[in-house]
Structure of Protocadherin beta-4-like:
Amino acid sequence: MEKMERIHPNRQVMAFIFMLVWVQVWSEPTTRYSIMEETESGSFVAHLAKDLGLKSGDPAARSARVVSDDYKQRLLLDPETGDLLLREKLDREELCASVDPCVLHFQVSLEKPVQYFQGELLIQDINDHSPEFPDREMLLKIRENSQPGSRFSLKLAQDLDVGNNGLQEYTVNPNSHFHVLTRNNSEGKKYPELVQDRALDREEQAELSLTLTALDGGSPPRSGTAMVRILILDIN
């Protein structure tokens, strides 16, 4: 029993030392950077070694490595300069889909002594996608006794970009019968709603064709179009 009592405090001490080492290894603050998507491979990201307070030659002497959370070598650390570089082009849509902001988490590991630094790279969106409708043509059937002010929901367009570069509004070519409003659905996506401005007369015009345009907020903006065919249904 006396022997067990002598060993137990030693285990407590060892556990405490292990915790101190663990905290020292992992308690480094997160380093944050940002870069535009589609930046060329080999491009400079940051003076990583300098930002981490490492001395000249430390990255090479301490076998510094950079690893992304998905274990893909998307970033490189120059062992001579300590600069963080892009190993490959980064496509924001491929990495994060519709998630915004798009953040690539990475770790910097060093040996002798062992140290780990947490890092984050914000992938900024560029306006490299245009809004697209699922179909090039939509068919809408409206009775000729439909009253002005009536509203008709149309299919929404999709834009892979996010934020201001994402889809912002819909327009329709000028005409005397309809205009379009931009609405938000329950998922926060924008969809077009066609609003009737005047009475319809099938005997006067049995079919209308409108050009629906989806616009994003880029500079310059990108757009996509679809044809809306409206059939006026006869009433007795």
Notes: DSSP finds four helices and 14 strands in the chain. The chain has two domains: 2-124, 137-233. The longest helix spans residues 2-26.
